[in-house]
Design goal:
This is Tripartite tricarboxylate transporter TctB family protein. Helix content is 69%, strand content 3%. With 175 residues, it is mainly α. The chain has a two-stranded antiparallel sheet.
């Protein structure tokens, strides 16, 4: 049971965060049109763009409530303040947190700087190459020329193949 207590604390916090995300999704979906005019005809509510995010938000709240209920039964709320204080004190030495922050920064750069300002294939190739270079290898192993060339080949080919599939088969233009 002792190994389950940290999981219950994580479940408690995560379920609350996901419930808040579900509420945000419902609020954002409520601002979308619910009656659609298309070709001079009024379409029914079940064809509206706000329906799918609303359903996802409701499901997120329901499933997160279930996780929260199990976390409360397991005592996940006990000692949460001490655990949070310890987590804040160890931010500087938490390598998993640093990796997560680096991943979020790379995705943010790709989305907000790369896409729209740089051609899709170039931005995607650079993003993939840098991401694989940073996260692919174990920290104690040095880079080899062969490994870097393999990553570069994957980084160049993946956006080309994905772009081709989306434009040719799905008829979805790439940014």
């Amino acid at each position: 049971m002792s190994s389950e207590k940290p999981l219950r604390k994580a479940d408690f916090v995560t379920s609350i965060v996901f419930m808040l995300l579900g509420i945000v999704m419902i609020v954002a979906a409520s601002r979308m049109p619910w009656i659609v005019q298309s070709g001079g005809l009024q379409q029914d509510w079940y064809l509206s763009p706000g329906l799918f995010p609303t359903v996802l938000g409701v499901l997120l709240i329901i499933f997160s409530s279930n996780v929260l209920m199990h976390a409360v039964r397991g005592g996940g709320y006990r000692g949460l303040g001490r655990a949070a204080a310890h987590g804040l004190r160890s931010v500087g030495s938490n390598h998993d947190l640093h990796r997560m922050a680096m991943a979020a920064a790379l995705v943010g750069l790709y989305v907000f700087v790369g896409i729209g300002r740089v051609e899709y294939h170039i931005a995607s190739s650079v993003f993939l190459f840098v991401t694989m270079l940073v996260f692919h290898r174990a920290p104690d192993r040095p880079f080899t020329v062969r490994a870097v060339l393999k990553l570069a080949l994957i980084a160049v080919l993946a956006p080309l193949v994905i772009g081709y599939i989306f434009t040719e088969f799905f008829q979805v233009p790439m940014p």
